[in-house]
């Protein structure tokens, strides 16, 4: 049976829970708010399937392939505005839906405000998958459902973090011609427990009732995104930039991150997916033919991926980029794990012992420095110099 002796050895992909023939594995939340497998030993038959499908215990070796890189913007501007960047996932997923297929992705469940993987069988349903979710999603029975659909001969697209995608590959244990795998470049995974507590705290501060959450709303522009809580009373809507919202600050401080993310086995250029997608904040570094309202960079790893991209090209603006080393050079999160903040243990100790409001305000107070940073960013946007300012700062810091 699977045993998690070190928490960094479990990425929370749910492959073991899905494969268990006796249903004796449950995903249980730990004191940091992350889910880990627990085995009911009385019902375990020692089939060892859970161990065989674990992507961490059975890491796929990186195999070089003939990658191709592209810039992509979906032509439907309403969809692009709702999307985190260029809308590439919707473009690919729409083709699958039009073949009578099923698409799986991460969506917010507004009954309990948890992020969960779920299915979409219509174009309208794809909207729930748009916009990034900065919380680890619950896979639930997704892997089982995908296998059944594939066995029934249907097209299936699955979008997720690299560890979730490799978890699915190990669970299926063989390739399927009608399976499309789409992984996103992942910085790391914040705690679902902390996020749930944060929403409860924010509800007590704001009042009303939250009916929509966007982790990266293009409220001002693509390069200055907001964490937004939409309320049944619009006057109570909440919008903060990632530099000032306390939950987002906890994530990007490298404290509120799953232990496995500090030594991620899935950070690599050559992947098991058909597509790897991520942002292109400064598209002018790569092409003058795209605007600044959101663009995806895509690595295509397979012939299947290329065939799909060719089929959907009329619905997108697409441009190949040949110098792939330069294309991925600034995306450190693709190949390097997030560094652990040395204060992480103290952070989670306080989380377990303090009232949440006192805890989050202790660790991420709204200081003068935070307010000044937010003011300068917004001022640069209003003056129309935000993107140019970012390019200048990156150049000074040697990040270009």
From TrEMBL:
SUPFAM superfamilies assigned: 4Fe-4S ferredoxins
InterPro entries (alphabetical): 4Fe4S_Fe-S-bd, 4Fe4S_Fe_S_CS, FrhB_FdhB_C, Polyferredoxin-like_ET
Gene3D superfamilies in the record: 3.30.70.20
Tagged with keyword ATP-binding: no
Organism listed in the record: Segatella copri
Pfam families reported in the protein's UniProt record: Fer4_7, FrhB_FdhB_C
Transmembrane segments: none
Keywords associated with the record: Iron, Iron-sulfur, Metal-binding
Record-level Gene Ontology MF annotations: iron-sulfur cluster binding; metal ion binding
Protein's UniProt name: 4Fe-4S dicluster domain-containing protein
């Amino acid at each position: 049976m699977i045993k998690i002796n070190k928490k960094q050895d479990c990425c929370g992909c749910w492959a073991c829970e899905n494969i268990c023939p006796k249903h004796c594995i449950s995903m249980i939340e730990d004191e940091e708010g992350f889910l880990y497998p627990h085995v009911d030993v009385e019902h375990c038959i020692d089939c060892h399937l859970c161990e065989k499908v674990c992507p961490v215990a059975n890491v796929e070796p990186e195999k070089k392939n003939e990658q191709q890189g592209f810039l992509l913007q979906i032509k439907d501007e309403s969809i692009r505005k709702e999307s985190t960047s260029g809308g590439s996932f919707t473009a690919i997923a729409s083709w699958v839906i039009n073949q009578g297929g099923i698409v799986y992705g991460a969506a917010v469940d507004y009954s309990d405000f948890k992020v969960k993987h779920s299915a979409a069988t219509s174009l309208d349903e794809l909207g729930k998958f748009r916009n990034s979710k900065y919380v680890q999603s619950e896979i639930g029975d997704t892997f089982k459902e995908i296998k059944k659909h594939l066995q029934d001969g249907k097209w299936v697209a699955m979008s997720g973090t690299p560890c979730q995608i490799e978890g699915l590959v190990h669970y299926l244990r063989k390739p399927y011609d009608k399976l499309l795998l789409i992984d996103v470049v992942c910085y790391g995974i914040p705690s679902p427990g902390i996020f749930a507590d944060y929403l409860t705290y924010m509800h007590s501060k704001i009042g009303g009732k939250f009916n929509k959450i966007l982790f990266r709303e293009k409220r001002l522009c693509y390069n200055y995104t907001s964490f937004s809580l939409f309320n049944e009373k619009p006057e109570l809507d909440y919008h903060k930039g990632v530099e000032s919202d306390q939950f987002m600050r906890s994530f990007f401080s490298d404290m509120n991150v799953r232990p496995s993310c500090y030594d991620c086995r899935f950070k690599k250029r050559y992947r098991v997916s058909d597509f790897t997608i991520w942002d292109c904040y400064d598209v002018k570094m790569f092409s003058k033919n795209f605007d600044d309202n959101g663009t995806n960079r895509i690595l295509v790893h397979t012939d299947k991926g290329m065939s799909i991209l060719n089929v959907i090209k009329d619905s997108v603006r697409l441009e190949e980029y040949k110098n792939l080393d330069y294309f991925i050079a600034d995306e450190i999160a693709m190949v390097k794990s997030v560094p652990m903040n040395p204060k992480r243990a103290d952070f989670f100790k306080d989380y377990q012992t303090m009232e949440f409001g006192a805890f989050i305000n202790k660790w991420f107070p709204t200081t003068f420095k935070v307010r000044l940073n937010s003011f300068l960013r917004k001022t640069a946007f209003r003056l129309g110099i935000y993107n140019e300012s970012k390019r200048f700062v990156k150049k000074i810091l040697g990040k270009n």
